[in-house]
Automatic annotation (TrEMBL):
One GO CC term, this protein: mitochondrial inner membrane
The name this protein goes by in its record: ATP synthase F(0) complex subunit e, mitochondrial
Biased composition (Low complexity): 64-75
Region entry Disordered, spans: 54-79
Amino acid sequence: MSSKSGINVLRYSVLGLGVFYGFSHQRSINSAQKAAEAQREYEHKQQLINKAKDAYAKSKQQTSGASAPASSAASQDLTSPNFDLEALIEGIMNQK
């Protein structure tokens, strides 16, 4: 009878160790997945920031380069309140 009780103790001990190992292994897998997800989210945010910086640089570059022609085009527009007859005549002469 003691042999049978020793086997039962061993059996339940192994079962308890298996359950403990399963929980600890699952926890380590979950933490690795959460860390990988956090890394992917950080990289995605970094890409969005870089795209926004590039778009801002392009918009600043376009506005600084296009400000002079826009003002001269506005001064040559007949309906504009900043109409400049001299700029219109110079524009026509430069086209010929």
